[in-house]
Design brief:
72% of the residues lie in helices and 0% in strands. By secondary structure, the protein is mainly alpha-helical.
Amino acid sequence: MPEASAPAADWVDIVAPEAALVSDALWIYGGLALVTLLAAGVLLLWANRPRQRARRELRRLLRMTPESPQQSRHVCAHISRCLQIAFAQQQLSAIAFAASHRDDWLRYIARLQSLRFAAAPPTAEQCRQAVQDALRWLSTPVEDR
């Protein structure tokens, strides 16, 4: 009988391994999740700025080809709305560009309005050119008031 108890005595000297530190892993994963959420929030805020949103919408219009005269008029109206939202102005003529750009801006507005309200609807190429010009105006700096 004493021989049977001898192997059991050998197991008494073995120490069990320590438990893994779960709290350290929680801090690491929690920190990574927080950084990821913050980065996603900043990216979402940046992407939804008015100029960025207008730029995305104008690029979508640039890929689209108006198929009817009524649709080409809608494209020109949509360009106006995008510019109003991007520059946070109700009237396009109220947007204050530098004096060197002011005359060109007023000519662009007049051309856009004539495309919208002319008796003959604008062609697809005229719509495309108006969208490209609008994208250029979005990258032009506005004067601070």
